[in-house]
Amino acid sequence: MAKTPSDHLLSTLEELVPYDFEKFKFKLQNTSVQKEHSRIPRSQIQRARPVKMATLLVTYYGEEYAVQLTLQVLRAINQRLLAEELHRAAIQGRPPDTAASPRCHAQEGDPVDGTCVRDSCSFPEAVSGHPQASGSRSPGCPRCQDSHERKSPGSLSPQPLPQCKRHLKQVQLLFCEDHDEPICLICSLSQEHQGHRVRPIEEVALEHKKKIQKQLEHLKKLRKSGEEQRSYGEEKAVSFLKQTEALKQRVQRKLEQVYYFLEQQEHFFVASLEDVGQMVGQIRKAYDTRVSQDIALLDALIGELEAKECQSEWELLQDIGDILHRAKTVPVPEKWTTPQEIKQKIQLLHQKSEFVEKSTKYFSETLRSEMEMFNDHSPQHGLGSWEERIIPQHSMQGPKQGVPCLFLVVRTV
């Protein structure tokens, strides 16, 4: 089944690495479109992935203009190889009556040496990418260009080797490490590169691939470490939350025995425990955010390096120094550390929880004893004087000094 322009458009967008795809979306937002077309909303462009982006382009602009606009943006972000492949695929996928210029047909429009001989040939510039005035010969005419490529022996090569810009027909098979650029044999013998470190480009590319592999292993180890630290931090935070919840329930069960007398004190204690729980939750959330950012950065660098590793030698060496530098200097994911304040609060809550239990027990026993004494000796007395008799004088001295003062204890939690 023959591919449609939409298929070629999607394949081209999927060829872009994440960084270049973000550049494509940014440039697309700032590229003028024909008046009869409406712009794609920025919010949809920013969230789109390749499949969604191809769908948006075809939906808003139609297949033909979507391809033209994509070619324009690809050339603007210096993705000329992808643009040329898309252009060639779009031309080959056109029907015979539309693939050629409307005025370039048989006999009158036969191509000679790759150029349409018909003076009125005017294939649109947006498709060919070659500026031309009406009435001029069109090297961008699809039929002429296709015929010229079939006649040219060089068109059989799947990917032509980069030619030296200074010395025609010289292939750049060497790499100057002093200038950090590919050169041809004639360049290496020139005065400009005399005494420089010049090596075969395959050898240099292989060396950089080894460096990429080394950095990939390093980054993946860092990422694994970050995942382990995040998991450990999650476990610790959950453990603290469970301890806090257990303490809350434990204290609530004890305070239920004297609830009508200590309702306010129970509220203070529970609120303190929940504050600690919220603090742990906030610390966990902040930590997870920081580690996730570090991991996201590592993912981005891994993606760039993996993409570089699959590129040809010449493409691989473009910006390789910057990528390797960023890989070497990427920050290590932050390790989970339990704040000292949390440790102290948890420890303090444990201590005060035990104290509350002892105080509640003593308070309940003392209250029961005092109430029984009231019932036996002064049945006419109600509860109005219990606060005056709940703390006997001897309770403020000796080993149990201050234990019945639950009201004071709980308010300080």
UniProtKB/TrEMBL annotation:
<keyword id="KW-0863">Zinc-finger</keyword>
<dbReference type="GO" id="GO:0032731">
    <property type="term" value="P:positive regulation of interleukin-1 beta production"/>
</dbReference>
<dbReference type="GO" id="GO:0005874">
    <property type="term" value="C:microtubule"/>
</dbReference>
<keyword id="KW-0479">Metal-binding</keyword>
<dbReference type="GO" id="GO:0008270">
    <property type="term" value="F:zinc ion binding"/>
</dbReference>
<keyword id="KW-0862">Zinc</keyword>
<dbReference type="Pfam" id="PF00643">
    <property type="entry name" value="zf-B_box"/>
</dbReference>
<keyword id="KW-0597">Phosphoprotein</keyword>
<dbReference type="GO" id="GO:0005634">
    <property type="term" value="C:nucleus"/>
</dbReference>
<dbReference type="GO" id="GO:0050727">
    <property type="term" value="P:regulation of inflammatory response"/>
</dbReference>
<comment type="subunit">
    <text>Homotrimer. Interacts (via the B box-type zinc finger) with PSTPIP1. Interacts (via the B30.2/SPRY domain) with several components of the inflammasome complex, including CASP1 p20 and p10 subunits, CASP5, PYCARD, NLRP1, NLRP2 and NLRP3, as well as with unprocessed IL1B; this interaction may lead to autophagic degradation of these proteins. Component of the AIM2 PANoptosome complex, a multiprotein complex that drives inflammatory cell death (PANoptosis). Interacts with NFKBIA and RELA. Interacts weakly with VASP and ACTR3.</text>
</comment>
<dbReference type="InterPro" id="IPR000315">
    <property type="entry name" value="Znf_B-box"/>
</dbReference>
<dbReference type="GO" id="GO:0030027">
    <property type="term" value="C:lamellipodium"/>
</dbReference>
<keyword id="KW-0966">Cell projection</keyword>
<keyword id="KW-0493">Microtubule</keyword>
<dbReference type="Pfam" id="PF02758">
    <property type="entry name" value="PYRIN"/>
</dbReference>
<dbReference type="InterPro" id="IPR011029">
    <property type="entry name" value="DEATH-like_dom_sf"/>
</dbReference>
<keyword id="KW-0968">Cytoplasmic vesicle</keyword>
<dbReference type="GO" id="GO:0045087">
    <property type="term" value="P:innate immune response"/>
</dbReference>
<keyword id="KW-0963">Cytoplasm</keyword>
<dbReference type="InterPro" id="IPR004020">
    <property type="entry name" value="DAPIN"/>
</dbReference>
<dbReference type="GO" id="GO:0006954">
    <property type="term" value="P:inflammatory response"/>
</dbReference>
<keyword id="KW-0175">Coiled coil</keyword>
<dbReference type="InterPro" id="IPR050143">
    <property type="entry name" value="TRIM/RBCC"/>
</dbReference>
<dbReference type="GO" id="GO:0005776">
    <property type="term" value="C:autophagosome"/>
</dbReference>
<protein>
    <recommendedName>
        <fullName>Pyrin</fullName>
    </recommendedName>
</protein>
<feature type="region of interest" description="Disordered">
    <location>
        <begin position="127"/>
        <end position="162"/>
    </location>
</feature>
<dbReference type="GO" id="GO:0031410">
    <property type="term" value="C:cytoplasmic vesicle"/>
</dbReference>
<keyword id="KW-0395">Inflammatory response</keyword>
<feature type="domain" description="B box-type">
    <location>
        <begin position="159"/>
        <end position="201"/>
    </location>
</feature>
<keyword id="KW-0399">Innate immunity</keyword>
<keyword id="KW-0206">Cytoskeleton</keyword>
<keyword id="KW-0009">Actin-binding</keyword>
<keyword id="KW-0391">Immunity</keyword>
<dbReference type="GO" id="GO:0003779">
    <property type="term" value="F:actin binding"/>
</dbReference>
<keyword id="KW-0539">Nucleus</keyword>
<feature type="domain" description="Pyrin">
    <location>
        <begin position="1"/>
        <end position="92"/>
    </location>
</feature>
<dbReference type="GO" id="GO:0001726">
    <property type="term" value="C:ruffle"/>
</dbReference>
